[in-house]
Amino acid sequence: MSEWPPDAPPLRLPDPCYPRPLQERIPILVGGSGERRTLRLVARHADACNLFGNPETARHKLAVLREHCAAEGRDPATIEVTHLAPARVVASAESREGAGAATVEEHIGRYRELAESGVQTAIVGLSDADGAESVSRFAEVIAAFRRA
Q1: Candidate CATH numbers 3.20.20.30, 3.30.43.10, 3.40.1110.10, 3.40.50.1820; the one for domain 29-143
Q2: Every domain of the chain and the residues it spans
């Protein structure tokens, strides 16, 4: 392999970000809920944070985030709050084994509690994702939260 000639002009490549993004700035979502470092980073830099756990945990983490926002002079309302959890819709008599197993009604109740705790967007991992059937079973839960 030959070396680039030392007297040759530098090689110029086209802009590597082509086509250009549609927006000026890409939003930053930070996942995690460490109270000392992660939530402080969210308060300083992030557009969104992704929390885990039950509604009570989310409520507590958001209180901590509000404290960090106050210390940073930032309005916490400028940070979108998301929540990631597994979900699997089961019939009332069906086995509750596996992550996120609950009935349609139980899922709806849990997501309502999360919304009341301050979560704005639910990110759902269908723990039984074996094709379209798992999404179909979850459709009733989705329908309960559709905006009119």
Answers
A1: 3.20.20.30
A2: 29-143
For residue 70, pLDDT over 60 is answered with yes
Distance CA 52, CA 34 (A): 11
Please, are residues 88 and 126 in contact by the beta-carbon 8 Å criterion? yes
pLDDT of residue 134: 78
- Kindly report which listed range (8-17, 25-34, 36-45, 111-120) carries the lowest average pLDDT score: 8-17
- Do 137 and 129 meet the contact criterion of CB atoms below 8 Å apart? no
pTM for the whole structure: 0.79
19 prior amide bond cis, ω within 30: yes
> Looking at beta carbons, which pairs linking 57-62 to residues 24 or more positions away fall under 8 Å?
57/33, 58/83, 58/114, 58/117, 58/118, 58/119, 59/117, 59/118, 61/33, 61/35, 62/117, 62/118
- According to DSSP, residue 19 is labeled S
Average pLDDT, the chain: 88
